[in-house]
Specification:
There is one protein chain. With 500 residues, this protein is an alpha+beta fold. The chain folds into three domains: 94 residues, no CATH class; 171 residues, no CATH class; 203 residues, no CATH class. It contains 15 helices and ten strands. The strands form two sheets. The chain has a six-stranded mixed sheet. The longest helix has 36 residues. It is elongated and about 105 Å long. The mean pLDDT is 82.
Length: 500
């Protein structure tokens, strides 16, 4: 400006520089977004909707372009506004351009970055602890050594109860003959999967005559043995429980607790059709029904019925929505087991393929797919915010060191120690970090309340998560502050005085 440049020329130059940087940053952001999207999709089951088919299309690129331009224009104006208050005469005689107002503006921006980082880190920490809690829930069965496979029975042939019973009985027998297989069974659904929702009227007990809703699963006799689900009382199903004999059912512990008040239900009538309860099984981990607002995994009332006693009307329609699972427990390695299971099924029906093979770990991962995505997204944003905060603090302190080298050299020449000089310059970065940390903790008091519906097994104001965030942020900001100040140790006071 002292050589004749107008403020408009300065503003235009600042915008050009910022647009160039924004363009480079936008391109890098698109590349990172492309790689991040592929990483995110790898966490999801193949049939997870609606996100499994999300592309980086023109709308995403247009949004990135608009945000980059707006950011460049907005933040390119801030230095120009500061030019209006510059006194050229005093500026030309000074060796520093660091004013109190500019320093405060930088500190304010960095404190804001740190505050948002605190909120994002705390939120991601809570989601991580939630995911760990859900993954470590007692499953109620032994998932080790179990392989499962699904097949679609939405076929006119298997709407006939006789053909349905024959398929299940003979395929299970064929799988039990596989070497190293200890037991095999079939169930309409498995642990970690949603059960069929069925309404009934209780036939006896404290709530006799009341309509209730319960999950219902048809199973073959070895279902409980294969999954090693404990039977708490009563007996298991047997081959004698078939059509034409007394209808029987096994209920789980949650069913007894909710509808029988803890009394022994064995021998009680389950429904108006006269089904007798013959046993009580331990709860297994299941997702809730869609209409229930509860944990993503937990226990709910379940009724197990013998597949050989399943209502023909149920068989005719249930396989439109459900694919039953064949499951085997093996004492040997899993390698090669899938092919043997397919051959065993083909020996009964060569035209019926399995649609997929899954371990119980796969079922757990699918049940927690939403939580895994939440952790990945929020964790990535928190790490990015932490990186931006560290870069901002580093840039602030490094800029102060570069612009105050003369002052620092004079201080050292007049007796100040290097430690005192470092502490004096680092105070600005530390002050911004502390203010941002305090502001972030205040924001957490309100912002984290909206997360109550997605947290399970951990409180909103979880002390270990908050302490972890404070320690991580303190470590990162300390390094970002200390590293650029080490340049002060290389300052030569004699050189500084000769320059004067």
């Amino acid at each position: 400006m002292a050589l004749g440049a107008s403020r408009w020329h300065i503003q235009r130059q600042l915008w050009i520089e910022n647009l160039l940087l924004a363009f480079i940053g936008g391109v890098i952001g698109v590349v990172v977004g492309f790689l991040g999207l592929h990483g995110l999709l790898s966490l999801l089951p193949r049939d997870y909707l609606p996100i499994a088919g999300v592309p980086l299309d023109g709308r995403v690129l247009a949004f990135t372009l608009v945000v980059s331009i707006l950011t460049s224009v907005l933040f390119g104006m801030l230095p120009a506004l500061a030019l209006k208050r510059i006194d050229l005469r005093s500026f030309m005689t000074s060796r520093t351009i660091v004013g109190v107002e500019r320093l405060r503006l930088r500190q304010t921006l960095i404190a804001g970055e740190v505050a948002l980082t605190v909120v994002l880190l705390t939120a991601s920490g809570l989601l991580i602890r939630t995911l760990i809690h859900l993954q470590n829930l007692p499953p109620g069965f032994n998932p080790q050594g179990v392989m499962t496979a699904k097949a679609s029975l939405d076929d006119a042939r298997y709407r006939d109860p006789v053909a349905f019973d024959r398929l299940l009985s003979e395929s299970v027998s064929a799988m039990e003959r596989i070497p190293s297989v200890q037991s095999a069974a079939v169930g309409l659904s498995l642990p970690y999967e949603r059960a069929l929702n069925n309404g009934m009227t209780l036939g006896s007990g404290p709530q006799a005559g009341q309509p209730i809703m319960s999950g219902e699963i048809y199973v073959t006799p070895a279902y409980f043995a294969t999954l090693q689900i404990p039977l708490l009382t009563g007996r298991n199903f047997s081959s004698s429980d078939h059509r034409g004999t007394q209808s029987v059912a096994i209920v789980n512990r949650s069913f007894v607790r909710k509808h029988f008040g803890g009394m022994n239900p064995v021998g009680q009538t389950l429904d108006k059709q006269g089904t007798i309860i013959i046993g009580v099984a331990e709860d297994v981990t299941l997702p809730p029904h869609a209409e229930q607002i509860t944990d993503p995994l937990g226990s709910e009332p379940i009724t197990y019925i013998p597949a050989a006693q399943a209502d023909p009307r149920l068989i005719a329609v249930v396989h439109i929505w459900f694919q039953p699972s064949w499951l085997v427990r093996t004492s040997g390695p899993m390698q090669g087991l899938t092919g043997q299971m397919q051959r065993a099924l083909a020996s009964v029906d060569p035209g019926l393929p399995f649609s997929g093979f899954y371990s119980m770990t796969d079922h757990l991962a699918q049940a927690l797919a939403t939580q895994r995505v939440e952790v990945a997204l929020l964790g990535a944003m928190a790490c990015l915010a932490l990186l931006l905060s560290a870069v901002g603090i580093f840039a602030l302190v490094a800029n102060m060191v570069a612009q105050r080298t003369r002052e620092i050299g004079i201080r050292i020449a007049f007796g100040s120690t290097i430690r005192q000089a470092i502490a004096h310059v680092a105070a600005s970065g530390i002050r911004s970090s502390v203010i941002g940390l305090g502001l972030g903790l205040v924001l957490c008091l309100g912002a984290l309340r909206v997360m109550r519906s997605v947290l399970y097994g951990v409180g909103v104001y979880d002390v270990p998560s908050i302490l972890g965030v404070v320690l991580v942020l303190a470590l990162v900001t300390s390094l970002a502050t200390i590293i650029p100040t080490l340049r002060i140790a290389r300052t030569d006071p004699a050189t500084t005085l000769r320059d004067e």
